[in-house]
Amino acid sequence: MTDKLDKLAIHTITTKSWSTEQCIANYSAAGIGAITFWRYNFEGRDPSTVGRQARDAGLAVASVARGGFFPAESAQQRQAAIDDNLKAIEEAAAVGSPSLVLVCGAHAGQSLNDSRLQIRDGIAACIDHAEQAGVILAVEPLHPMYADSRSAINTMDQANELCESLGSHPNLGIACDLYHTWWDPSLESEITRAAVSGNLTAYHICDWITPTSDILNDRALMGEGCIDITRISSALSNAGFTGYHEVEIFSQRWWAADQDDYLSAIIKSFKTIQ
Ligand code: ZN
């Protein structure tokens, strides 16, 4: 297999009809470098066994998705979110993942500022546990269209501010996802800022299709949409990023396709954007 695929990772939700075992077997057979597990992959399974199965198949574990969702109206709910994040950190460590992606959360019943303060407090409550577990918490800024309910952290600038406000802790970083950040005129300078501070942890790729028919489940395969992926990948590379390019596509259209053909299409498109 070509070396190009060594840097390719796939989020299991991309081929969500496949079981954990099918993802491991099929990604491995295709020569892909790494796998990012979603937490549903551990249901009824021991994460440490899943991690061993992946490594035995020649796949590195790129990351685990996802923790976060810290904001809530009551202190009890916020503590429950922290407890769930501590559990997610344990799972990430057990599967052998270097990081855990955080979709930080938001609550429409309160101000964005309150949600942002609760996100910071939630991360601060988890960071020691992450350090002990050897897991980096990777804050993923989400497109502003999700600011009501999924994340009050919406730009790379905000993610950088958040990391820096917590002292650029070695177990805190940023997952830069093209779907959420491609439109940002400050994207390249914020990528550099994150890298200089040691906060550039992960890179998620897909494409933005026009018109978008669903704001959650109509992501496109790389090359189908309008994102200048090569330019942004170059910005990461120039900033010193050497991690995986993690394909993360939620798409009713692709989920309905033959998944073997889909995996072939992912690999073909990945090669063309290098
Ligand atoms: Zn992502």
Describe the SSE topology.
Layout lengths: L7 E4 L8 H10 L4 E5 L8 H10 L3 E9 L6 H21 L3 E5 L8 H22 L2 E4 L16 H10 L6 E6 H4 L5 H10 L3 E6 L1 E2 L10 E2 L8 H10 L6 E3 L4 H4 L3 H14 L2
Parallel strand pairs: 1-2, 1-10, 2-3, 3-4, 4-5, 5-6, 6-7, 7-10
Antiparallel strand pairs: 8-9
Helix pairs in contact: 2-3, 3-4, 7-8
This protein binds zinc ion.
What would your notes on this structure say?
The protein has helices at residues 20-29, 47-56, 75-95, 112-133, 156-165, 178-181, 187-196, 229-238, 252-255, 259-272, and strands spanning 8-11, 34-38, 60-68, 99-103, 136-139, 172-177, 200-205, 207-208, 219-220, 245-247. It is built from ten helices and ten strands. It has 274 residues and is of the alpha/beta class. The strands form two sheets. Strands 1-2-3-4-5-6-7-10 form an eight-stranded parallel beta barrel, surrounded by seven helices. Strands 8-9 form a two-stranded antiparallel ribbon. The two termini are 15 Å apart. Bound molecules: zinc ion (ZN). Zinc ion (ZN) binds at residues 140, 175, 177, 204, 248.
